[in-house]
Structure formats: C-alpha cells, structure tokens
Amino acid sequence: MINFIICEDNEYVRKLHESIISKVTMPYDFNYAVHSFERYNVKLKNLINSVGERKVYILDLELPNKSGIDITREIRKSDWESIIIILKVLIIMDLLV
Fold it and tell me: Measured between alpha carbons, how far is 43 from 57 in angstroms, rounded to an integer?
C-alpha cells in the first residue's frame, strides 16, 4: 500500500493533485490511498508517525499554521524512507477565467 499524503491549503490545487494521482496510478494494479489535508493537524501528525507503509508526501511550501519545510523536518525525525515533494503553486486568476 502506498499512501499519498497531500497538505495544501488551496482547495483547487489540492483537488488537482488528487486527480493527477488517480490518473497516474489508474493503469497500474497496486493499492494506494490518498489523504488530503488543508493544514497541519493532529490527523496529519498521526499519519506522519504511523509506521509500516510507504508514503509519498506532497506539501505546500506555505501553509497557514506550519510550512512545508517544518513538516518535512518533523517527517525526517523518524522517517528517512518516504518521498517528500514540496511545491509552491502560483495561480494567476486571469488565466483561469
């Protein structure tokens, strides 16, 4: 089982990450789960501290209560195996309209 863990405060971007993960994993036959968070919280902390499963983190650089860098530091205290991707997404609203 691979756990994709997304922490992104922008709902549009969070849903986009979820969609990309689904599209990329669809052709392959393996178990995965997507866990999405708007901000760092107790549920995310518990997932970080859980052991035994593979994890891929997709973290926003700037979050309301803890940065992606700070979350990475917390992850690396106990987990050197997981993949961590830190992103900063710039959305230009004029291009979306």
Answer: 14
* DSSP bridge partners of 59: 7, 86
Residues 93, 80: Cα–Cα separation, whole Å: 37
**What is the spatial distance between Cα 38 and Cα 44, in angstroms, rounded to a whole number?**
10
Angstrom CA distances, 66 to 20, 69, 81, 93, stand at 25, 8, 22, 25
Give the confidence band of 73 by pLDDT, cuts at 50, 70, 90.
Answer: very high
- Residue 92 in this model has a pLDDT that exceeds 80: no
Q: What's the mean pLDDT in 37-47?
A: 96
Tell me the residue type at 29. D
